[in-house]
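Limitations
The structure tokens in this dataset are predictions for the assembled complex, not deposited experimental models. Users should treat interface geometry with appropriate caution, especially where small molecules or nucleic acid strands are included. An illustrative entry is reproduced here so readers can see what is and is not provided.
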Amino acid sequence: MKTALIAAAIWLPVLAGAAEHHVVIDGMQFAPQVVQARPGDTIVWENRDLFVHNVTAAAARAGSGDLAPGKTWRYVVPAGTSSFDYLCTLHPEMKGRVNIAGPAPRRAH
Amino acid sequence: MNKSAPLLLSSLLALGLLSPAHAAGPNDAQIAAIVVAANTVDIDAGKQAEKKAHDKDVRAFAKRMVADHSSVNQQATALAHKLHLMPEDNDTSKSLTQGGATTRTRLEGLSGKAYDKAYVDNEVTYHQTVLDALDKTLIPNASNAELKALLVKVRPAFVEHLEHAKHIQAELK
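Predicted assembly:
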């Protein structure tokens, strides 16, 4: 029963059409700089740089807090979120953007 | 000539960038010493600015310089240890250290907005000078692949710091 619940938790987002996007922080840059996502998708930022960074999106009222080298931050795009710019407030020249498309299309029956 | 120019000139001379006769570049042990000296100069300048700066953006920048350049020095020291590379003091590393001390003494006598401006002006000059040294002297002369890779890896930080400093410099005018 427990195994079935875990399996359901893992597969539910996939069945609902949610995707996972990865952004690497390295060399004082977010790569890719622009991510295309939909509500329900997860975006994972991974800090591979030598320095502490953060991901701060004032417009989306979201922030990772300090991300030490090697750390990741997962953000699930809430319903109703508009496209937003973000930056590392510690290194303000580092900027990125998340473009939000409409909700995932319903699966055909 | 602005007040930063003499420091820039001495730094460029120290890094061999204005001396075409100085054909032989630094070896890896000397490069390690130059990297540590250059970062230590900015860490010490940042610590001074954390105490003396008037503007909150200048203080935040100074705090970031202390943190980031300390990270670079930790990486450089760890790599030197791994490679059994004993940093070898040389004219350039000594000149950088001496120049940093001279600048801190000069800045210690300033306060308020005058201090903020002088600190940020010096940060712009410093980061541009180190970037030039990385591109023209340190990276090309590094013979160990891991040392060269570390220099390449930290280069974007100097670019970001330079642009950040320039923005603050523009806001202080």
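Some entries come with short summary sentences. For this one: The two ends of chain A are 28 Å apart (CA to CA).
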